[in-house]
Amino acid sequence: MSSSATSTSESQKAESPYKAVPVGSSSTSGEESDEMKRSDSKLRKSLTDKGDKSYYYAHSRDFYVPPDAKVVTGPGLITGGQPELIARSPSPEPRNVMKKRPVKQYSWFDDEEKVKVYTEDPQLLAALEDDSVEAHSRFTATGFDLWADTPDGWRVILSVPILNAEIVPEECKHRVSRGKRVSVTLKKKNVHRTCYFMSVAFLTAMRSKDRESRGGVVIVNDQNRIVALGYNGMPRGISDRDLPWASHHEDKAQEKHMYICHATINAIMNKNQHSVRDCRIYATAFPCCECAKFIVQSGIRRIAYVADEQEDGALEDSPSMEAGRVMFSLAGISMIPIKLKRKELVVEYKGQNELPSQSPALR
């Protein structure tokens, strides 16, 4: 009985109730698909060469389908056979593709809070001479496009996709002066740098012992790093008590102007790097003619200063300041007046282990 049972069991294993059906054939047929039968087909060649590494390896696997399985047919169900065309996608509408003429010549000016871009490109100006042609602009956080579409199918475009810093797109704009130029105004996103460096200049000025006029200067390089600080004071190594601090005296030798070193000169002399060439200065006041000479000689390219708003205008109209402006203009140094909306510098400090609730800022 035991051997008979064993024999019966082995027979049952040999005759599986399931039928092998290759993928791609009908679920009721064990025959290979036409593609599998072709010895020269790419499918067969891939399976022969790569075995189970073939991309088509799934086609070589066998699936057992129960004999009582039913083929369900109906709309949307595929039971084998060749692909059938259900519907055709509508043809896309033809697009009006403009031929482009790039604008490659333009100039720009950086005035701290904004950057102005100018172009006098002949092709762009010629296109805008037609009253029916308008200039268009598109701004992103890091770039902009300015263009005009001509009636003959050309798009004259100035494209600057990557700027040096982020801008505020909704506050940017363009302006057309027909026959002259087209300008683009870009509003910088990080305008707080100006307030920050100017705040440091005012904070530095607090070190001065001159009770009548304290001046402060910050020199910043092209990486926005402070490389020098300066405030007005007596020459190094000389006691403040040994020299006069009076602004006016019958004896000119007893006036502070004969001895004091201005903030700009001290900053340039006390720089923490070899040179301040191509740096920029933030000053609490417009430099005098002597400081202007040092600025020109040191190679500084830009100066931002607090515009004086005295009623009599004495400081702004002084010959010394006027001489400084002349030298800056001839040397190509940008002069950027800063009008303060707030007049008070507040530094709040609670303790060694507590952070200030407000950073130094102009109020």
Automatic annotation (TrEMBL):
Transmembrane segments: none annotated. It holds the Pfam family dCMP_cyt_deam_1. Its cofactor is Zn(2+). Residues 101-197 form the CS domain. One of its GO terms (cellular component) is cytoplasm. It comes from the Eukaryota. SUPFAM superfamilies: Cytidine deaminase-like, HSP20-like chaperones. Residues 1-15 have a biased composition (Low complexity). Keywords: Hydrolase, Metal-binding, Nucleotide biosynthesis, Zinc. Residues 1-49 are annotated as: Disordered. GO terms for biological process: nucleotide biosynthetic process. Residues 192-317 form the CMP/dCMP-type deaminase domain. CDD domains: deoxycytidylate_deaminase (cd01286). Its EC number is 3.5.4.12. GO terms for molecular function: dCMP deaminase activity; metal ion binding. Residues 35-49 have a biased composition (Basic and acidic residues). Belongs to the cytidine and deoxycytidylate deaminase family. PANTHER family: DEOXYCYTIDYLATE DEAMINASE (PTHR11086:SF18), DEOXYCYTIDYLATE DEAMINASE-RELATED (PTHR11086). This is dCMP deaminase. It comes from Perkinsus olseni (Perkinsus atlanticus).
